[in-house]
Amino acid sequence: MENRLKHFREDRGWSQGELAKRLGVSRQTINCVETDKYDPSLPLAMRMAKLFAVTVDQIFIDHWKPEGQ
Amino acid sequence: MSATMDAKKLRVMLWRMLAGAVVGGAASLLFFKFVAEPNMDLKDPSVLLAAACGIVYLLIGLMVGLGAVAPKTGAHFLNVEDAEELREERQKIGTSSFACVLIGIFVLVLALAGGAIGSRTALVVATACLVGILAVTVAGAKRYDELTRQLAVEASAWGFYATLVVLGGWAALAHLGFVAWVSPLAFVALLIFLQLLTAFIAVGRRGMLMPR
User: Fold this and answer.
1) Which pTM was predicted?
2) Structural domain A2-53, CATH architecture
3) A30–chain B Cβ distance below 8 A for any pair
């Protein structure tokens, strides 16, 4: 899933390690999310959204559309 | 990501693989020359398989352990961003490396049994290793974050299917009389080898073997 985590993180001037600490995960997890190797769980996505004061769909972009729309 | 960056990462990965192969090859040669040859019946394929499997686990455990105790050095050959990341993950990496070392000793002791060491001594050491592996794994799992947990689940699933196909298939063929069944030692060695292989598959499928 496409995401803008790196954009929001860099906007705050945080390193991957700093963001990882704030979210209580490993730096590798942040790296894998940013490079589309791993889609985070819903609780972690919610925490990310809360941390950056945005909505989840502002960070994670899903291009899927229901049939017929 | 730019093509230059991809080429650089690929070069780093190839150098790391080459260095790993050289260090691993040299350590294995020394091990076989000074430990295995004088103390193991290497003419028995299952002993050879167990010895090879054990030394691979032992080396992986020691290399990762080195990264945990000496992060600056470890950052050169482990797939991390920098030494600081190894410091942050020291406890998790430490328990993983310890578990790998214990698995290596477990299978090596079984390979040595009946030769250099008696079966009773081997039983005591192997049991201690198994208890240690379980204790270290349970303690280490508490420090897993969600990515590590997910990778463990995926590696376990791959491990199960690989075991089902390879050992289950082999057992079925042996039951039907088409092949000979493997020795218990070869079975143990194959089990842990398949788990290692499938762990690499799980990590590799996510593109996490590529240098960061």
Assistant:
1) 0.88
2) Orthogonal Bundle (1.10)
3) no
